[in-house]
Write a structure and sequence with these properties.
The protein is α+β, with helices and mostly antiparallel strands and about 375 residues long. The chain folds into two domains: about 230 residues, P-loop containing nucleotide triphosphate hydrolases (Rossmann fold); about 120 residues, Beta Barrel (OB fold (Dihydrolipoamide Acetyltransferase, E2P)), CATH 2.40.50. Helices cover about 25% and strands about 35% of the residues. A six-stranded mixed β-sheet has the order 6-7-8-3-9-10, with helices on both faces. A five-stranded antiparallel β-sheet has the order 13-12-11-14-20, with no helix packed on it. A five-stranded antiparallel β-sheet has the order 15-19-16-17-18, with no helix packed on it. α2 crosses α3 and α2 packs parallel to α4. The protein is elongated, with a radius of gyration of 25 Å. About 35% of the residues are buried.
């Protein structure tokens, strides 16, 4: 490690991994491929199995079925200290009685490196995270963000093949969390190290990751880029977990090569552009995001589905205003950018929501 660590980018695989605690199935047939040098997120609610999967990769848990591979090598039975994997914990796990430099050097000393090598790697890692001048301080003399960077430096210093991050930003306040996730992304790209990041925060996952695996009840629901998950969710769970949604219930009645006819008991019939995953017929739900809905006092074009309703709620969110509109299809949500001086809508007002057909997605029921 000179000015920055040099890593060979490696692939991480999980093949048919399963784990249960008693009768509780925590992971169910997990098959996953993390590409070399990728920043990959495991996203899901508490109890979804994401941290358990991360600990399996680290070697702190043992799968009852399946295997874990790093760079094509099966490490399922390899103890944690021989896996060449570095992990940053949610609590940072810094020793309060040691200086910053001593905390970072600890893992290097355990590997019985020379004193000069330990000193060089420690300083290089601290310089990389912008804490070179803080080597003599103790953790309690640092901010939360600085402590997180010390934990990162300690892990980077051992030059692992894979970096594992277990909700490392959850203890930071909102503004610092945004700044640190930006710094974390830049650092990962600079290092080029394969990184797996566990979070329950969809905004963190969307803004940092190359790809994301959304997990629920021990099952991977969908893997894709942030844009793919947001624009084309595989099911209702993914759609609701990765953002806010509106749903319109109905059925596909007929279909041509280019269009399909959607029948809504509340809104009537309207035509949709055909998509590859659209069923030929049968019950479906149409999904659209709140920002895709235009709010008007009357329809102002024929390029959209227009839904009449009454504005019931208004929430000012700073950059946008969120409206709740009661319609024949139920309560629908629309987000409108807030621009100073523009006319606003008030609760009780009659409005129309306009959604372009291109912004409607089909969810199979």
């Amino acid at each position: 490690m000179q000015n920055e660590p040099a890593h060979n980018k490696v692939r991480v695989e999980a093949r048919g991994v399963a784990l249960a605690y008693g009768k509780t199935q925590v992971l169910r047939d997990i098959n996953l491929m993390v590409e070399p040098g990728e920043f990959f997120a495991l996203l899901g609610p508490s109890g979804s199995g994401k941290s358990t999967l991360l600990r399996l990769i680290a070697g702190f848990n043992i799968a009852q079925a399946g295997s874990i591979l790093i760079d094509g090598r099966d490490i399922t039975a390899v103890p944690p200290w021989q896996r060449d994997v570095g992990m940053v914990f949610q609590s940072y796990a810094l020793w309060p009685h040691m200086t910053v430099a001593q905390n970072v050097a600890f893992g290097l000393e355990e590997r019985r490196l020379s004193r000069d090598e330990v000193k060089r790697r420690t300083q290089a890692a601290l310089d990389l995270v912008g804490l070179g001048e803080f080597a003599a301080r103790r953790p309690n003399q640092l901010s939360g963000g600085q402590q997180q960077r010390v934990a990162l430096a300690r892990t980077i210093a051992i030059e692992p093949k894979v970096l594992l991050l277990d909700e490392p930003l959850s203890n930071l306040d909102a503004r610092l969390r945004v700044r640190m996730r930006h710094e974390l992304t830049l650092l990962q790209k600079k290092l080029g190290i394969t990184t797996i990041f566990v979070t329950h925060d969809q905004e963190e996952a969307l803004t940092t990751s190359d790809r994301i695996a959304v997990m629920d009840q021990g099952v991977i629901q969908q893997v894709g880029t942030p844009t793919q998950l947001y624009d084309s969710p595989a099911n209702r769970f993914v759609a609701e977990f990765v953002g806010t949604i509106n749903l319109l219930a109905g059925s596909i009645e007929s279909e041509t090569a280019a269009t399909a006819m959607f029948m809504s008991p509340d809104l009537g019939r309207f035509s949709l552009p055909r998509s590859g995953d659209m069923p030929e017929h049968g019950p479906v739900q149409l999904l659209f995001r709140p920002h895709a809905a235009r709010v008007r006092t009357a329809p102002d074009g024929d390029d959209a589905l227009w839904i009449p309703g009454t504005l019931v709620t208004r929430e000012f969110l700073g950059e946008s205003v969120r409206y709740g509109v009661e319609t024949r299809a139920g309560m629908l949500i629309a987000d409108r950018p807030h621009l100073s001086g523009e006319p606003d809508y008030a609760p009780g007002q009659a409005v129309h929501l306009g959604i372009s057909a291109s912004q409607l997605r089909v969810l199979k029921t």
